[in-house]
Hints:
The complex is a heterotrimer of chains A (194), B (215) and C (808).
Chain A: H1 5-11, H2 39-45, E1 47-52, E2 61-66, E3 73-78, H3 91-94, E4 110-113, E5 121-123, H4 125-143, E6 144-147, E7 153-163, H5 170-183, E8 185-189
Parallel strand pairs in A: 7-8
Antiparallel strand pairs in A: 1-2, 2-3, 4-5, 6-7
Chain B: E1 5-10, H1 19-28, E2 54-61, E3 67-74, E4 93-95, E5 102-104, H2 113-119, E6 126-127, E7 134-135, H3 141-144, H4 151-155, E8 161-165, H5 166-183, E9 188-190, E10 197-201
Chain C: E1 13-17, H1 21-24, H2 28-37, E2 41-45, E3 58-60, H3 67-80, H4 86-92, E4 105-106, E5 109-110, E6 113-114, E7 119-120, H5 147-155, H6 160-167, H7 171-182, E8 191-195, H8 197-200, H9 205-218, E9 229-231, H10 238-243, E10 250-251, E11 255-256, H11 265-272, H12 288-300, H13 326-334, E12 340-344, H14 348-351, H15 355-362, E13 367-372, E14 395-400, E15 409-412, E16 417-421, H16 434-451, H17 458-461, H18 476-484, E17 486-487, E18 491-494, E19 500-503, E20 521-522, E21 532-533, E22 536-537, E23 558-559, E24 587-590, E25 593-596, E26 680-685, H19 701-706, E27 711-714, H20 716-722, E28 729-734, E29 737-745, E30 752-754, E31 757-759, E32 761-765, E33 799-807
Parallel strand pairs in C: 1-2, 1-8, 2-3, 8-9, 12-13, 13-14, 26-32, 27-29
Antiparallel strand pairs in C: 4-5, 6-7, 10-11, 15-16, 16-23, 17-20, 18-19, 21-22, 24-25, 26-33, 28-29, 28-33, 30-31
Amino acid sequence: MSVTRREFFIVSGLVGAGMALSSLGVDVGPVKAFADELKIDKMKSAKTSTSVCAYCSVGCGLIVSADSKTGNIINIEGDSDHPINEGALCAKGASLFQTTASNPNRLTKVLYRAPYSDKWQEKPWDWAISEIAKKVKATRDAGFVEKNDKGQVVNRVENIAHLGSSNIDNEEIAALNILVRSLGLVYIDHQARI
Amino acid sequence: MSQGFSILVDTSRCTACRGCQIACKQWNGLPATETRQWGSYQNPQDLSADTWKLVRFADGVDSTGKVYWNFFSDQCRHCLSPGCMAEAEKGEIVQNEATGAVIFTPKTKDLGFKATLEGCPYNIPRQNPKTKVMFKCTMCLDRITNNQVPACVKSCPTGAMIFGERDKILDLTNKRVEELKKDFPNSKALNADEVRVIYVVKDDPKKYYEYAAGK
Amino acid sequence: MTNHYIDLKNSDCLLIMGSNAAENHPISMKWVMKAKEAGAKIISVDPRFTRTSSVADFYTALRSGTDIAFLGGMIYYIIDNNKYFKEYVENYTNASYIVAEKFDFKDGLFSGYNADTRKYDSKNWVFKRDEKGIPEKDPTFQNPRCVIQLLKRHYSRYTPEKVSEITGTPVADLLKVYEMYSSTGVKDKAGTVLYALGWTHHTVGTQNIRASAIIQLLLGNIGIAGGGINALRGQPNVQGSTDGCLLFHLLPGYLRVARASQPSLDSYINANTPTTAEPQSANWWQNYPKYSVSLLKFLYGDKATKENEFGYTWLPKAEDGKTYSWLDIFDELYAGRIKGMFVFSQNPAGSSPNTKKVVAGMAKLDWLVHTNIFNNETASFWHGPGMDPKKIKTEVFLLPAACSVEKEGSLSNSGRLSQWRYKAVNGPGDTISDGEMVSKIMLKLKELYQKDPGKCPEAILNIRWELLDDKKQFDSHKMAKETNGYFLVDKTLKDPSGKDIEFKKGDLVPSFAYLQADGSTSCGNWLYCGSYTKAGNMMARRGKEDPTGLGLFPNWAWCWPVNRKVLYNRASCDPTGKPWNPKKAILEWKEGKWVGDVPDGAWPPMSDKEKGKLPFIMKPDGVAFLYGPGLAEGPFPEHYEPVESPLAKNIMSAQMNNPVIKIFKSDLDKFASNDPNFPIVCSTNTITEHWCSGAFTRWQPWLLEAQPELFVELSPALAQEKGIKNGEKVVVSSIRGDVECVAMVTPRIRPFKIGGKTVHQVAMPFAFGWLFPKTGKDSTTNILTPGVGDGNTMCPEYKGFMVNVKKA
């Protein structure tokens, strides 16, 4: 017996699209997830985009729905057209909504911890980038190795390390690769090793 | 009423990924409850006003010495004649005609919880302790009346949950049981004539969950 | 993966070993279950009965760290019972090659070992070659020095009884697995291997996988639909980051990092470009110069000229033979030699082995730059357990990153499928993408080096950075095109049929076959050449056609190389190009061309002695390696005990551990083998509800609700011995530290009988930490794990180390 995901929809297609719940004589209070308007109704006008899950490497497709009025993401579920997951998601994938701005635990500011300090301070980007670049340059210039013990030209930096990441996009990885190689780093690794 | 919809929950295909448990929370905007590790993969420990779908885990050793780990993705069975409705005379609990979904309305706060729970053979109804309103699975009535399968069914990767018209689901159920019986003679569908959410098990239902086949 | 996720449905037998696919790659089970419903058998081999085991047709357990013994027994079973696919083995592997006299194996060591350097001289392992350099062969397999005879001799020591004594797997179970799986060594059956960190997290990890490769080659399971060796990888883009080679030993596209002994571009290319005398070998890596020069043009643009060796001198040169891996990095931190560190989107304070050494090392840094979407134990190490912020000077920059749906770009799954994802919304607050962060830092560094040259400023100033959009922000489309590669001058080249094809300066290169070694093309990663072409962004495609019915979906996104779904797919056909199994034909030679998947080379099949090529095109001699002289520990996998073992002696030989592993010597690198204080084997694992160290998922209430706290799984027998009840708090200790967690007593774990004694094993996830949620003492599992790595890859031994368990 084999029923494809597509067939699930065909099987379920008979009630008729867009039937208002109230017309069924039902008060669906408990279904109500978003204050004034039902989520299912908001979904009809939502801006949707496709994405790919952010966890394991199966590469499941997602449909992300953003509310047309607030612009906020209101729903993330599996992409039924996606040939690998055909709409399905595991526990982590199904929870992706909680990685978005809806989660108050998200980092939203640059945080800086000064030497010997016991707290974080919020900082603007310009300050942070400028400070980071200065420190990278100072460390690099102090540790730059032009020649090794054998006198071979090596142009490398052994006092700065880089880790990461298998958790960012290919284009970001390419950018990181340029950064770390241009600095002359040799201590370069990421999650693939572990 | 015998048409409407049904869900086949084929436990033999379930790998306990718990996509369904979380998809239910996500779609319905249900909050997480605070839990602790209690010596099981199963968490929350039980259904609640905020948890309408729960994968139950049961491991053990069978009479031949073989280990098993059974998964039972528990939820409201949406009974054809719902026991929970016995006392609900003022529309506190309604059965949606087109779909067969059994819906707890906010008026359930006026119902006796004990009686409602006792009326359910499957130990499903739960009450919000503060508001006294009762909650459980809605069969995703909002989705199924808008051409979308229930959130849990959609999330299922292995075909352990299939949603459709009741007659088609009954056909599928019978075929699946026959197939499974070849290797697992104890396979059966649980109370298929009485419920819309039909569980198929390949062993004694008690090895899955106390109320798997009802009280 | 040699194959891809959907292809699992085409298999007749799935050996899931070193993987708990249902737990860690839940949606892969969609295709595993499809196979099962079509009649395939699932075999689950794991120290614990897992979610995967629950749907397996056959399950058996082995002690953690004994996979080579288990698989070695299968190799012998296959050869001894003549279960191997003769025609495949004869034509497509080095089974018939004659190995030169110097190769030998005695009591756990191959010839050429130097105990002082802990290294082998692999010159002792070469093939016998004729005066032209072509390997000598015996197609009759009779010569005692031919590979298959040596293979048989090596594994004849791995009798079921001996294997059972090592692994703890009952002999009957071993034979059942061997019989079930070797049934795929025929033309019309496909067997596939699914593995993951359960095989890599060992000091013999690479050889675990080699052992499975030998089995798959013997059974003719490589290159076919439903076959292959399939690594289920652990992160969303770990395939892409490996292809992109953010790694110490490689440059993008698996090109080798430049080494100190290679002062010139020529010397670098000569050292890395293999040659072959085998007339029918494609030897694809002969194209190394094209890929490396195109990479240099990508990095340095017009600044890279023929005269300056395309800027080769500006690349850092690593010391020959030296590793700069993860474990080395934290050893250097702890020694105080590394002063600054970038950590992009990961949590080493939770995911590294021996985390006490990791955080002690981080406390010696001058600065740490960390990007993430949630706070974690790495960014906050300075106020973690045992840390006194007043004594820690490290400056920490915690940069708020956009999450996956708040930026645009591609990522590659385990099946090498590169998929584009779109930006749904802006991230909250000051979040920006990691790409934009890198861009800001790079541009600022260029500015600083412009003002004050410091050291080797050319390396930074000459780097091209033309990657910004109209808003001066990092543009992932621009980078994707640069990665694909451009023609830098007008060029007329030949297409595969020999016809002229004209390219203009500024054209995107359609395929890596057109990349050049003369500086006329640029390419950020040759494997991704073809991913973004004149036809558009191939990674964003959503075509649903499946012409073969085998689930290839050639028009959905794009996979490397050149959209080929099954690697080495010409091995799915006999030497005349007829599919071994016409019912699941991934490829067929028809009327002078290949039909089906994108073939690995358009050449005719090898029966065409003039133009035909052997299928294993990435191997210099065109055939797959049953005998693999390229690995550090020797040409055949051999069982060695984990660094921490319950045994006093390796049952197999006098050599206790992998002889080539690197042992770190710091005071925090402690090991306890065969130690009565730590008698229990422990393995770490991942759980469905959390991702790796839990740095993302613990902050998500739904997932935390589902898995709230650290636990240890143990058998009822061990629980009884220790007086532990299910759900009680316990302390798990190794020689490196203690962790408190909750006991999960389950019959899914059973004690083993090893070498006549009872050995217990326990299992722990590593998804928890001290920062959040606060459930008690530090619940960083990796406090327990040893900082020792695989002999080839330096991948740590998270599985199979020694602990004790007691009531808290």
